[in-house]
Fold:
Amino acid sequence: MATLEDGVPPDQTVGPGGELLENPRRRDYLTYAAVSVAAVGAGVVVLPLVNSMNPSADVLAQSSTEIDLSAIEPGQAIKTSFRKQPLFVRNLTPAEIAEADKVPVSSLRDPQTLEQRTKEGKTNWLITLGVCTHLGCVPLGAGEGENRGPFGGYFCPCHGSAYDTAGRIRQGPAPTNLQVPEYEFTSDTVVVVG
Ligand code: FES
Structure:
């Protein structure tokens, strides 16, 4: 059956007296549509801008970290970061160096001497990633008063891997020693990692 609404344009409606009025629902729809288009347009502009602010993989790979060692006393360690990963820097005492040196290398799961893991003449400076080689937890031992585990180095609380004073795996499920990153001394007290 034909009604008064038949033949009325979609942007208009019929008033109580049969007069044609602006359709408010149609007007709202048009308003929402305009806002949505504006929002999508803004997204298209913003996304490339945000992406351009992220460093590329190449830039990240080349980034290096400079560390001032002068405030780290023998027996102390610090936690810092390198390429978004935790980095441990430790100033070993003569007793900790002796402890590492007396271990028969052939008995180790990942055989390496402390000398191979440090720079010549600087065997007191042990610089490793603070990332357990089992499943990537951050081991304890670099922070003041933290549990250094049964071998006096680092202890991973996740599954009990214990590293010695040279950062070598001695007990637990971790397959390899804590990783030593590329680094060099640029002076007696400054190291550049990366
Ligand atoms: S992640 Fe360290 S022992 Fe499992």
